Amino acid sequence: MIQGCFFLESEVNKRRVDNTLSKVEGIRTISDVTSAGIEWQLPSDIEQISGYVIYAIDDKKTQKILHVIKNPFATHYYVGKLKPQSSYNYQIAALGRQNNISVKSENITIKTSYIDPIENVFASKDLPKQIKIFWSPHPNPSIQRYIIERRAENGQFLRVGVVPHRLYVEFFDQNLEDDKAYTYRVLAESFEGALSLPSKSVSGITRKPPLPLQNITASNNLVKSILLHWDVPQNPISPIARYKIFASPMLNQGFKFLAQTKQNSYKDQNLKDGEIRYYKIIAVDADDVDGEMPNGAVEGNALPLPATPKVIAARMINGNMALLQWRMPENARQIAHFKVCRLANGGSKVCFDNISQEEFIDKEMKPQIKYQYSVQSIDANDLESLPSQSFTLGY
């Protein structure tokens, strides 16, 4: 505790140095991390002393009055708010009762100590999107909290968290990238705000994402839908909880989330006939870690319409009947039957269905009426092709 009252600095500086006053001697010091205590012996001519002046000396050897004690019986002084592991220099002079001052004492060098580093720091290697850092409690009871730092890409350690109690010895660094290593160190902080030496650096790594899925297939033979299928991952890093499916009408861009499923198949429905879509599928583990989006995509398409028949003959026979003959393109898929539609001059339309041969004879024509004929193929799924070129016949 500081005793006495302050003198103005100018008043101290006006005093004359008196070599007959006893120089302050018998000086001892004690220091900790952020403070120091100074002790001295009472001068032998105490009856001539009115107090003491404490001087601080900076790195440039410049002196400044730190404190003035107006009590001749004081023998102790306390300095606080010092930096750990730092050296400080002081001197003491005795104030006389006759507006005089003694010669300054020998130089007093004080070196503050430090708080030992935290021991036994560890970092996890397999947690999803986070790393757990944990350590042994610091044995010093003056510790108030812990500061956790992570090394940035430029090599500097930056604070990422604070743990508020000496016996609370773990921290989770969260929202990290998958399968990436991070380096940490931990510092202890005292109630006075002094930091310990940094702990040894430790490295942790986040969990790897699920591996890419294998044997992804997409159908091309289903009506207005595409069936996706893939292999169930064997021996995954972490149990697989579900799959996410992304789709796009383009191969290299525009992929948007379509659906998720717990099964290893999915049917994309309500598509247009012949619609082509591209798919990317990823696994998601039980901790919501997404697998990496694959570079490539699998192509699927809904079943297209059957091929349109090519009419090879359209003419009148026997004067009052129309004959149409057609052929299917090479490599066309199997057709169940055909349909011929007839449009008369006034607008009524009649269709003849379930034609199994590649020809049709219209025996129901009426004179003086022109008819337009077209042919469509129909497959086993009842999908109808586009109409063929139309032909006009009549008599």
From TrEMBL:
GO CC entries: membrane
Keyword Cell membrane applies: no
SMART domains for this protein: FN3
Keywords: Lipoprotein
Signal peptide: none
Residue stretches making up the Fibronectin type-III domain: 20-115, 117-209, 212-305
UniProt-recorded name of the protein: Putative fibronectin domain-containing lipoprotein
Coiled coil keyword on record: no
